[in-house]
């Protein structure tokens, strides 16, 4: 969801970004993710679950953003030019569609802010330690 939302924010703001997402393991794109993203007009049909080694030039990113604690802990070291940020979110897996929607909406707010910062040449928002609260079950 984060990849699609970051790409959409870049498109809306007219920012040329190459966006890739990867997880700690390749599984599958969950149907709940497809459903809640379709609700906001984003189609995940071409998306697939990937590991870091499945993305192009995995050691040369300008920015690496992790959205779950396990990814932050297992994320490899990057050369000096890579800026890392951690923005944790509750994993909606196993939750209701309402929980998926809430996480989707939180991700949208975060990645809109990230792309807005990039568009304006500003520093990315600081890393966070705790996930935003999830109220829906």
Rg computed from alpha carbons, rounded to a whole number of angstroms: 14 Å
SS element count, helices: 4
Give the overall shape.
globular
- Order of helix and strand elements from N to C terminus: HHEHEH
Major beta-sheet overview = 2 strands, parallel
N/C terminus separation: 19 Å
Strand order of the largest sheet: 1-2
The CATH architecture classification is 3-Layer(aba) Sandwich
Structural class: mainly alpha
According to CATH, what is the class? Alpha Beta
Strand fraction equals: 5-15%
CATH superfamily caption: Response regulator
Nearest-integer average pLDDT: 88
Query: Uncertain regions: pLDDT < 50 for 5+ in a row?
Result: none
Protein name: Arsenate reductase
Keywords: Arsenical resistance
Organism: Deinococcus reticulitermitis
Pfam families: LMWPc (PF01451)
């Amino acid at each position: 969801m984060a990849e699609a939302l970051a790409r959409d924010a870049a498109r809306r703001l007219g920012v040329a970004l190459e966006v890739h997402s990867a997880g700690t393991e390749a599984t599958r794109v969950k149907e709940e993710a497809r459903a809640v993203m379709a609700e906001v007009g984003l189609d995940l049909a071409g998306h697939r679950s990937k590991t870091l080694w499945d993305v192009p030039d995995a050691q040369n990113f300008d920015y690496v953003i992790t959205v779950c604690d396990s990814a932050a802990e297992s994320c490899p070291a990057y050369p000096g030019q890579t800026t890392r940020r951690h923005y944790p979110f509750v994993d909606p897996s196993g939750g209701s569609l309402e929980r998926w929607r809430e996480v989707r909406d939180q991700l949208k707010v975060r990645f809109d802010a990230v792309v807005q910062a990039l568009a304006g040449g500003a520093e990315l928002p600081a890393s966070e330690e705790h996930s935003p609260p999830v109220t829906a079950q």
